[in-house]
Model the fold of this input.
Amino acid sequence: MKQNVTISLDGVEKIYPSRRGDPIVALKDISLGFEEATFVSVVGPSGCGKSTLLMVLAGLIEATAGTLSIKGEAISGPRDDVGLVFQKPVLLPWKTVMSNVLLPVRIKGGDMAAAEERTRGLLEMVGLAGTEEMYPFELSGGMQQRAALVRALSYDPDILLMDEPFGALDAMTREKLTVDLQRIWLDSKKTVVFVTHSISEAVFLGDRVVVMGTDPGRVLEVIDVSIDRPRSLAVTTSNRFGEMVSHIRHLLGIEEIDSAIE
Done:
């Protein structure tokens, strides 16, 4: 394992009780190391424990067994250096974009003036300049998700955990936000763990792709994505990209074409 590992999991398991009496093993023997400033995609079918893995890393649920650490410190709850982007934007409808985005900073008692200045730059970076005083209902779905991303970045966390943030968007908006996210990551160089159902999206965005399987949720393989950055959508038609997508489909037993980006 490399020396600059910022997130470490060793033998992590998560077991949920069942009304029928048989425990549900959501995660089984997960051992991974995520290096600093890398973009790690996690892909797999429904029920493989992708979101559970992310919630464990976020400190929102506790692992049943194994050890987890961030920067050498055991994960015992939510951390100030970790940002989380959910599947839906979860913006408060009675607050403006600026108020929604600054909410975590306000809750944490941070420097509001500095955060507001930083937030204006982030909103401009994601194409939301001029929306500061608008309300969520005035924004499209893609714009709302951009605002949610800025909210997670508003207090400048070192680590960003993203749980299928583009899953509810139409294909064209999803493509654009995928490219935008790569650009934002290249600018910020944060450590990102990105959960998705889309194999193409996972390969396009990731430095590494963690492929997970079901029954129980486990790691099938970790794949290094040897494609230069920055990547344009044209890379999705390359032989190398196609080979990696096909390999992951084979691991998952999928024959159908993944249409999220293609």
